[in-house]
Amino acid sequence: MQDVIRLLPDAIANQIAAGEVVQRPASVVKELLENSIDAQAKNIQVIIRDAGRTLIQIIDDGGGMSETDARMSFERHATSKIRHADDLFKIRTMGFRGEALASIAAVAQIEMRTRRPSDEIGILLRMEGSELKSQESVACLPGTNILVKNLFFNVPARRNFLKTNSVEMRHILDEFQRVALAHPEISFSLYHNDTEVYNLYAGKLSRRIVDMFGKNYREQLIQCQEETPYVTVRGFVGKPDFARKTRGEQFFFVNERYVKHSYLHHAVLAAYESTISEGSHPFYVLMLDIDPSHIDINIHPTKTEIKFDDERSVYALLMAAIRKAISINHLSHSIDFESNVNFLSPMSGARTNTAPNPPSFTRDSALAPSLPTSRREETNLSHWEKLFDGFQKPDPTPVQTTLELGEKEDFSESLPTTLGSRANALNAEDEDIKNRRLAVQIQNRYVVSAVKSGMMLIDQRAAYERVLYDRYLKQLENQNAASQQLLFPATVRLSPAAIPMILEMREEITALGFDFDALGPDTLVVRSLPGDLPSDNIQQLFEELCEQLHQSHDELRLNRAETTARTLARRFASRYVVRLSSDEIEKLINQLFISSNPNYTPSGEPIFVILSLDKIANLFKNG
């Protein structure tokens, strides 16, 4: 019988390895930047065209390579970083596998010019699909200049799976930011389609953060510094007031290498406990310096995963360092020993709720025509009220609530004598309430309503998300959103990574009532907003929009209109987690049950649950 196992050719083996190392253009940028850092470069320039599809060029002034080293660098498992197996446990360099250049050369066309400072002339190599096309001597500056052209030219299936230019460019910017934050002592510049995106000068970490994210970060940075024999923690964390609802600007670096570690992120959140609201995420750029023998980074080719030999100690030290930094800056809650808590007014110290008033959701309001009115929804409208059969308030017996002078107060014949009888008597005069279903709000988050089978508990934020989603989707289809013109155009500064993403979705965002233009790589001018959104903090509004779009690009695989409607509904629904009046509660319930799917949010989360009488009885029995 003929043998069937064969050794794969080097070209095929390199393409297989490239599938793990080179997943998208951002992977190429990351690997080449790390090579430049390992070469002791002090100035690194990144040039991108068409989000990396056409060109990725990295120019550095590092140590360069000899002719032999330049040729060997494109071989698999060829590296200058390690010599023995023990070196894996004392790695200080960014790269060590020796796979990056070989993997990139397997799926792209490469030109590399490199020269050592001690050499008079450099070397030019041309690679294509793992094959050496030419090698010659050239005059060039000290350092390395590498061009990666037509990525995935020989793997069309991989090229077709690339996302839009704005999405791919966002991933490139993410990788660029991580490397630039880890090495503030190096100057970085980034150009996309001949437009300067970043020009970062060498300096301190605080300056790098401000240069990268904007001047408004100056006032929110808190320095964090703690040294122990096991690990050193340094960097900056954000003030609790600047915490946001979505993640995005949280960076961990271990020995100057960016890592993702949910356990350490939990330590940060634990340090902020009671200083930020639930579900918020603070800004932080934290550097952990630790002996390489205590960690293992040889887990995945991307090298973003890491293991510690004592995670609990790292967790405790990190949490203690952040708590110390917050307390030094007097940002933790303090005890007021001069106030008498026994005599505080229930409203004393209460924070002013600046959230907008909930929109008026009624069947006859202007919002109703913008919602779908399919056959299924008409059926929902005609039958959902049966849930509440038997729970409308009966007409109460008229009660005299205004007492004449000298008249005795007697409710024995009208209402039972209870603690709430006086309130019941006062409410009985309101004719608009007498037939209203029983529904109350709990902690501005949930609505409880009595139904025929028991009790219905509604998630207020989820309900608004469903209603807003239907509204936005209808507006996108009909292009009829109401808009409010700003008296004076507002200027909004965003990160360079956010502007391309906003401009890509401009048509959909404009259809909802926004009107804006780009003034530069990091600035928008806003002229109008949707009619139901507040105009008091437009900067925060667009930051929230960008954060949600950033998150949705990774999570959603829908058409752009549906993606936009879902994104905005999820972001702006949280603005309506406020105190609701009885009318607003009833209007929300009405609007929810005429929506396209009152059971679930657009992302599939349940909106309400019904507790039957049997379940309620079991709660008391089990208790």
Short characterization:
The chain is α+β, with helices and mostly antiparallel strands.
Name the descriptors.
22 strands; alpha+beta; 22% strand; 623 residues; 18 helices; 5-stranded mixed beta sheet
Coarse shape: globular
How many E strands? 22
Overall average residue pLDDT: 76
Q: Which strands sit side by side, in order, in the main sheet?
A: 5-4-3-6-2-1-7-8
Instruction: Count up the helices.
Output: 18
Distance between the termini: 72 Å
Beta fraction: 15-25%
Spans of 5+ residues with little confidence (pLDDT < 50)? Answer: 333-356, 360-373, 393-436
Most strands sheet: 8 strands, mixed
Radius of gyration, whole Å: 31 Å
Class by alpha and beta content? alpha+beta
Estimate percent helicity: 25-40%
Write the layout of secondary structure elements.
Elements: H1 10-21, H2 25-38, E1 43-49, E2 55-60, H3 67-72, H4 100-106, E3 109-115, E4 122-128, E5 131-138, E6 143-149, H5 156-160, H6 165-182, E7 187-192, E8 195-200, H7 205-213, E9 221-227, E10 231-238, E11 250-254, E12 257-259, H8 262-271, E13 284-290, E14 295-296, E15 307-308, H9 311-328, H10 375-383, H11 421-427, E16 439-442, E17 446-451, E18 454-459, H12 460-478, E19 483-493, H13 498-504, H14 506-511, E20 515-520, E21 523-530, H15 538-555, H16 560-573, H17 582-593, E22 608-612, H18 613-622
Parallel strand pairs: 1-7, 11-13
Antiparallel strand pairs: 1-2, 2-6, 3-4, 3-6, 4-5, 7-8, 9-10, 10-13, 11-12, 14-15, 16-17, 17-18, 18-22, 19-21, 20-21
